[in-house]
Amino acid sequence: MTAYKFGHVILVGFPHTDLRNLSKRPAMILYDSGDKDVLVARITTQQYTTESDCKIENWKESGLIAESYIRLEKLATIEKVNILKLLGTLSYLETEQIKTVLKNIFNL
Predict the structure, then answer these.
(1) In a domain, 3, yes or no
(2) What are the residues facing 5 on neighbouring strands?
(3) Can you give the pTM of this predicted structure?
């Protein structure tokens, strides 16, 4: 079973909020405990400017095809069998920014 790391960008069958359908979407790995599931945050090309959204500055280097944003308030636990492929990895500076936003969201 593949082990994923914080900051990996993946292509996944992402669940809709109604849990009836899946769409192929990029997502960022937040946590892989080593079992069959991972915790991910949605990545979108739609621009959002809330406190919990992060713009990906180095989107090409991360394996994405367009300027994108991580929606840190849109999390999902998914089975690894739904991961279609690893697209890339976010830069160190971007992962540090994401950690700061997560700390603020959860008041850590």
Answers:
(1) no
(2) none
(3) 0.89
